[in-house]
Write a structure and sequence with these properties.
The chain has nine helices and two strands, in the order αααββαααααα. The chain is an all-alpha fold. The protein has a two-stranded antiparallel sheet with strand order 1-2. The longest helix has 32 residues. The chain is elongated and about 60 Å long. The protein starts with a helix and ends in a 7-residue tail after the last helix. Keywords: DNA-binding, Transcription, Transcription regulation.
Length: 236
């Protein structure tokens, strides 16, 4: 076989294994504290063990699986109490960024706001399919909006918090309705900020964040309950 084709096929198998395992983990298909055996997963997904091993390493980096003492992996259980606390921190950081220019008698950086608005208008015209990876675009929106307030340190802290809650926020982007609504709400927020109407921006952001945490908690709780009831039995 042509080495180039072989490498491409391996890459495709690895991406397929990663995408499918992530989907199954997010909806709670695997039991808690069960060993995610490479051989069994490979048979389940119709790939070799190597793509499964690579996928599990990527999922560990995203905190969707925990590493076992012997080097294997098991599904990670979301800590919903910690997540709610981190959402509170996130809200405080974003509110501080949003209101900072008004408190200082300045305005958000107009070029940054316009660039952000144009990027999300483009997403409105070509809406992505539901995908947990949309969380990265969502995080980028909020960090860029915070950067436009002129406080880079605050935006950096927001990025750290977003990384901590990413494991459950992926649950928010599994349906077309949530992707579409997120884009609409982001545009509403950035347009209000762009016109200097921070009262409206504040109100829209509060509604946006409230909806997000409600969806995330409901879906994460449902997935956790399914994990606890599952008897899939991956043991090898």
């Amino acid at each position: 076989m042509d080495p180039t084709l072989y490498t491409a096929e391996r890459g495709q198998a690895g991406e397929r294994a990663y995408t499918e395992l992530k989907r199954r983990l997010l909806v709670g298909e695997f039991p808690l504290r069960i060993r995610l055996g490479e051989e069994r997963l490979a048979a389940l997904l119709g790939v070799s063990r190597t793509p499964v091993r690579q996928a599990l390493a990527r999922l560990h980096a995203e905190r969707l699986v925990d590493r076992l003492p012997d080097g294997g992996y098991s599904p990670a259980a979301p800590n919903l109490v910690e997540i709610r606390q981190l959402y509170e921190v996130r809200r405080s950081l974003e509110m501080s960024a949003m209101l900072r220019p008004e408190e200082l008698g300045t305005r958000h950086d107009r070029d940054m706001i316009e660039s952000l608005r144009e990027d999300w208008r483009a997403l409105r015209l070509d809406t992505p399919d539901p995908d947990p990876g949309f969380v990265l675009l969502d995080e980028s929106f909020h960090v860029r909006l915070a950067e436009a307030s002129g406080n880079a340190a605050l935006a950096e802290l927001l990025g750290v918090v977003n990384e901590r809650i990413r494991i459950v926020r992926m649950h928010d982007f599994l349906t077309e309705e949530r992707i579409d609504r997120t884009i609409t709400q982001h545009l509403g927020i950035v347009e209000a900020v762009g016109t200097g109407d921070l009262d409206t921006a504040h109100r829209r952001f509060t509604m946006h964040l409230g909806e997000s945490i409600a969806v995330v908690e409901e879906r994460a709780t449902r997935a956790l309950a399914k994990m606890m009831a599952s008897d899939f039995g991956i043991t090898t």
